[in-house]
Amino acid sequence: MSTKSRPPPGSNQEAQSSQLPAIGPDDSFVRVVKALSVYIVDEITLPSTFEQLRTTSAGNKIRLLVEHLVLNCTNPALINALLTLKWHFSTLEVDDRGLNETRANACEIVAWRFLTQVSERDAVDFCLYELPPVQPRGEDGHANGNGESADEHTNLLPQIRPRSALAPTASDRPGSRRVDLLRSVSGIGIVPGGEEQVEIDEEEDPTTSFTGLNGLEIAAVADCKKFLSQRIVQRIITGIWNGDITFWQSMSTNAKKKPQFYSKRKSDPFTRLRVPRYIKVFEVLFFATFLALYYAVLVERNPYHVTFLEICLYIWLAAFSYDEFSEFIDAGSIFYAVDIWNGCDVIIILIGAAFLITRYIGLAQDSIPITDTAFDILSLEALFMVPRICSLLSLHSYFGTLIPCLKEMAKDFVKFMVIVAVLYIGFLTTFSLLARDKFTLSEMSWILIKVFFGSSYLGFDIMNDINAKLGPPLMLIFITMTNILLVTSLISILSNTFSKVISHAREEYLFVYSVYVLEASTGARLTHFYPPLNLIPLIFIRPLRLFFSAEQLRHTRILLLKVTHSPIVGAIWLFEAANDYVQGTARPFLSMGPGTGKFTGSIVSSRRQRPFLSDRANSKTHSGQFTLFDRPDSSGPQIYSVKSKKENDKAEVVAHDNTDLEAKVADLSLKITELTALIMAQQGTVGEE
């Protein structure tokens, strides 16, 4: 595939078409990545901001690429390739011109603009298409395609990424996936400004680390926050959140994960346990019970022996710790750290472990003071457990928008306090030495802390006691710097941070929300046990791994899940039945299915084959998802022959005479076309200059 040859100067249209990437429907992922990279590197040669690429003539090449891809590209890995390139250009060394950042933004813009030009079902197929694993070239010559059932690890930054389905590596660790991806994109072989394309070595595919990831997961890995915040992408994520789009249809040993539209008649009701909103609801219920047991133990406060309520609190704490550990293993440290509430979870576990150890020591030594210390440690849990149960508010757009602002303001506050600490230590040393005969170091420390937080009169009262000559001027300087200069500067910095972050806070909120939905739904683990029921397979099934095969263990886990979670599934069924009765059975993606959502590789018939600047009235191609209308050449009342994809020439619809309306629409369409051509011509002139 050669995209470097320049046509002779003659036809601008031919020149443009020769530069556009040629992507076949069956091209491998690495070939798609390289074909797109050559075009991006060749055409994006001037630094521009995201808004300039989106709204000015600087994005003309992007618009041409989007139109070309909409009309000609049917490769299902297109979105995966564009977002992988975004990751690649973002991880390159920062240049003075900011060209790599411009190219990264261009890839992100092309991805979401492409989705807006196709049908919603095609958008779902593109976004949820998982890159197939590369077939290993071992001695057997083939790869095992059932590697997903053994370990049941999530595809979203998994803890262990096997080189093949049969031989997982033992050297990987949590979070090492991001390092692996960095190495992968660095080996794509794209040299900005280079004149030769690096040959593709199929045996050493540099993009193998992305296998098993769908487009949305790659977007989360690549920090494509603007892409994830687009309306079409959020519709897909909301569909996953509500359970309208699922990844499992049956709860059986041979079940395979694939994106599909939910059908109540075909799907196993136990697969509803993987719906993110139900996971969140039962997580809140678990925390409410956890908090009730916590208050009951603190009120009871038995210093002599362990009570029944305290045993229940230990069970809840163990189930919570195991659930957090499983989430950390499945998601990896990178995505686990994205959620701010996971930090609270870790602190809750550490405080609980400290209480358990101190409580055991107090009971073993029969020491009342140590036991009191244990309950004092347990009382600290309320600082994190109460906000944790209110984490449900973070899913609301208003509260979820404020959390990123508070997070960034806290970062700036910590950075600013470094300057405060340096000045404080300097003045503390001076005042302690000057008043060494009257104030101890501890007393002087507390006095200066009170002065810093507004008690200026304390400093003026003791400045003569510190030193008759140096005390007053030094204290005046300290009070002026702390109460006027530093505090005012801190308020200004935090205000600037708030105003800067609030403009992008919704993108941050949607990014965290999207990551949570993907973590909760796209994992390869078929059986998901809700805490505290997750302790049952840990105690009774985990030891059996030494004796049973992976298939037998999976069958046993499925049976245990159906026995223990039947009441929960019944509650979910009643809720959905009541919801359908009140709101009706209409679903956000009703026009798309429900269907399997499986990518067939031939999507030309189901896509709106229309350039985004073309005239709707003169368009000859339509999406296979919509009805095709053949208008007969006659006057008077128009008769349209309705042809659907499965029923061809089986129905006729008689429409009323709308001649005047059609004439006005045609005239308006002509004016819009002329105006569009004029604007594009002016933008092209500016771009050439």
UniProtKB/TrEMBL annotation:
Keywords: Membrane, Transmembrane, Transmembrane helix
Biased composition (Pro residues): 1-10
Transmembrane segments: 281-298, 304-322, 334-357, 413-434, 475-494
Keyword field contains Glycoprotein: no
Region Disordered, residue ranges: 1-22, 607-635
Skewed-composition ranges (Polar residues): 11-20
Domain of life: Eukaryota
Domain Calcium channel YVC1-like C-terminal transmembrane, first and last residues per copy: 287-577
PANTHER family linked: ION TRANSPORT DOMAIN-CONTAINING PROTEIN, NONSELECTIVE CATION CHANNEL PROTEIN
Protein name (database record): Calcium channel YVC1-like C-terminal transmembrane domain-containing protein
Organism of this sequence: Hyaloscypha hepaticicola
